[in-house]
């Protein structure tokens, strides 16, 4: 894995943003999304409303739409997940997936794309199908590659769902993506094509699976999805370069996840990033291999028998591991061979595996350490996040400020 110059790192303005919510130094995506979308702090779990969940905040996307601009919302996770929902919906709880999805057609926004819907028929599966409601509201709904590629402005309002959906109705991790799956950059480019008009457009594009990979402490999957997101950024910058006097591109994170750091006690001042080249699948797809092996052996398989799949997926060789590494992996493998209800649930197990598949976690942690990478959490952290900007009013994004200020800077540039 060579060093890649990210497009977002070449943008002329670089700033930093704080991300805390009303109740915590460490925010969640709902509160952070609300801050970016509305300029208001709120409590974790709340979507574009005040901390009590009783007062709605108008979003920058809604204001832009009122002004006559077209609006697009794109994400590599489900389209009613916390961050995308914060731009078009209002709910006291981010877990109200069905109710959030119902607000998608009510928004009238012209383009929604990426992941699918977590609860298309409600929590109990007994509600009207949200996809049919979306179609009934006049949206063109596509979920196949050919249909997506044929989309044109003549199709009107569009909801485009990736043909391949993984856990949480998300896009596959970039490391796992095959030719039958649409990239985040392709979704972004299609958005530019469909939204471009004389009155302008606003598009929010989220690389949500970067966050998910960091929750699972999977450095390689995070890196690959970051590069995929950066390719979407390049699409935006290409549009900016063609229309420099009327375009603003802003890139930021809603929070940091996992406490990722370059540096590990065992590698001291050295890094060995070339070791990351050995990983060929995400933890998510490797979990499926473990599950299949567990079922085929009735939970009585051996790590030695399974290890060829480890070598293929992570580039790790048993004979090159230390005794302590092998012991750590065997412990995790033993846990993975148990049914979920039979696994250890004590504090030590959570610190080791974070509630994820134990053997996958042990392997990614081992590979990360060998490369000189470490993590502090399976959750978010409170550290500031970078902000990059290019275009109209770009200088206002210089410096150090709060995430609510990003909304105000964008709104000012857009004349809202």
Automatic annotation (TrEMBL):
Record protein name field: Alkaline phosphatase
Residues noted as binding Zn(2+) in the record, renumbered to the chain: 211, 215, 254-255, 380
GO molecular function: alkaline phosphatase activity; metal ion binding
Lineage top rank: taxon: Bacteria
Source species of the chain: Dethiosulfovibrio salsuginis
Residues annotated for Mg(2+) binding in this entry: 81, 83, 206
Record note on cofactor: Binds 1 Mg(2+) ion. Binds 2 Zn(2+) ions.
Taxonomic path: Bacteria, Thermotogati, Synergistota, Synergistia, Synergistales
Pfam family, one: Alk_phosphatase
Catalytic machinery residues: 29 (phosphoserine intermediate)
Stored CDD domains: ALP
Family from the record: Belongs to the alkaline phosphatase family.
The keyword Cell membrane is assigned to this record: no
Record key words, sorted: Hydrolase, Magnesium, Metal-binding, Phosphoprotein, Zinc
Entry cofactors: Mg(2+); Zn(2+)
């Amino acid at each position: 894995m060579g060093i890649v110059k990210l497009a977002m790192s070449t943008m002329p303005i670089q700033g930093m943003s704080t991300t805390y919510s009303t109740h915590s130094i460490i925010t969640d995506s709902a509160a952070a999304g609300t801050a970016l979308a509305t300029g208001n702090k709120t409590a974790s779990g709340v979507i574009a409303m005040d901390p009590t969940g009783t007062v709605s905040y108008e979003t920058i996307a809604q204001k832009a739409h009122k002004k006559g601009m077209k609006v697009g919302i794109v994400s590599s996770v489900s389209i009613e997940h916390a961050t995308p929902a914060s731009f078009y919906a209002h709910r006291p709880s981010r877990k109200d997936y069905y109710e959030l999805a119902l607000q998608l057609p009510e928004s009238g926004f012209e383009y929604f794309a990426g992941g699918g819907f977590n609860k298309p028929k409600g929590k109990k599966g007994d509600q009207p199908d949200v996809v049919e409601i979306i179609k009934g509201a006049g949206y063109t709904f596509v979920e196949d590659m050919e249909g997506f590629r044929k989309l044109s402005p003549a199709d009107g309002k569009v909801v485009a769902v990736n043909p391949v959906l993984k856990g949480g109705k998300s896009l596959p991790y970039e490391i796992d993506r095959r030719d039958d799956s649409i990239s985040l950059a392709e979704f972004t480019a299609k958005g530019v094509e469909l939204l471009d008009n004389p009155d302008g457009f606003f598009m929010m594009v989220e690389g949500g699976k970067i966050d998910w990979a960091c929750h699972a402490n999977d450095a390689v999957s995070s890196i690959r999805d970051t590069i995929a997101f950066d390719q979407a950024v390049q699409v935006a910058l290409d549009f900016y370069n063609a229309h420099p006097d009327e375009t603003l591109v802003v890139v930021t994170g809603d929070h940091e996840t996992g406490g990722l750091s370059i540096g590990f006690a065992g590698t001291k001042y050295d890094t060995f990033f070339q070791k990351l080249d050995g990983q060929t699948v995400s933890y998510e797809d490797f979990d499926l291999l473990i599950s299949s092996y567990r079922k085929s052996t009735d939970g009585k398989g051996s790590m030695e028998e399974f290890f060829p799949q480890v070598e293929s997926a992570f580039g790790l060789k048993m004979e090159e591991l230390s005794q302590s590494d092998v012991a750590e992996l065997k412990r995790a493998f033993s846990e993975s061979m148990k049914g979920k209800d039979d696994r250890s649930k004590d504090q030590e197990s959570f610190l080791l595996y974070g509630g994820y598949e134990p053997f996958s976690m042990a392997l990614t942690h081992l590979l990360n350490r060998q490369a000189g990478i470490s993590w502090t959490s399976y959750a978010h952290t409170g550290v500031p996040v970078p902000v990059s900007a290019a275009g109209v009013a770009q200088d206002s994004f210089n410096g150090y400020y709060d995430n609510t200020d990003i909304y105000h800077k964008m709104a000012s540039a857009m004349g809202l």
